[in-house]
Amino acid sequence: MSISVLNNISSLVAENAVSNTQASLQSTLQQLSTGLKINSGADDPAGLSIANGLGANIAALTQSSQNASNGIGLLQTADGALSQVTTILNQAVTIATEAANGGLTASQTTALGTEFTSILNEITNIGTQTNFNGTAVFGGSATTFTGDGTTNGDATTTTAIAALTPVALGITAADATADLSTTAGAATALQDINTAIAAAAAQRGTIGASINQLTSDSQVENTQVQNLTSAQNNVQNADIAKVTSNMTQYNVLEQTGFAALTQSNSAEQNVLKLLQ
Question: In this structure, what are the phi and psi dihedrals at residue 148, rounded to the nearest 5 degrees?
């Protein structure tokens, strides 16, 4: 074995080993502090791309679920208003039925006609004043966009919500100012009121079907968010138990590396004894 003082190979090996150990220890400490095993593109380029893609999907699905909830809220507002209108129309049925009966005085039929007209005006008020987030509910459509952030994952649910007026429900303009003083007039008004009740029920049925669809969409999206989040965690999150074990290993290797480096430098000094 030759002895040389120009290059201390053992010292270089030990120094290189200590440097690698310190780099690994630094990476391990970073994983512990962030909870992530991928903190930069250099850690795992493919894994980072997958994790970021999953993150985009999760963000889109989370907002889509919120969109669906907002759409459900709008439709429930419309359904609630139509429920109130049905209650009012039932009152109109009572009034028209009473007016169709004989034996009423002129003042009584006038009072019934006034109350009937007031009910119809209230339906108009409900139709014009009902709004959701500052937007009129009736006389347009409820459009809800959902998607997962991909081209093929987009969907739009549109529900037409007709204008809410007595005429739109099937009560003619003539009935709106009906003279309930005659049996024929009261009977005609009663027929149209029943038509209006059926129209309101049909509209509520359409709205209810859309609510069910959006509720199902929201549930599916929430399940997808859960599954994608789990997948993202598997790709990106650090295994703390494993990282802690690695830290212990690198700490020991760092200490033994420094000891080896010290020993190799000491061995180099022994060459001087040959000159004494």
Answer: -110, 15
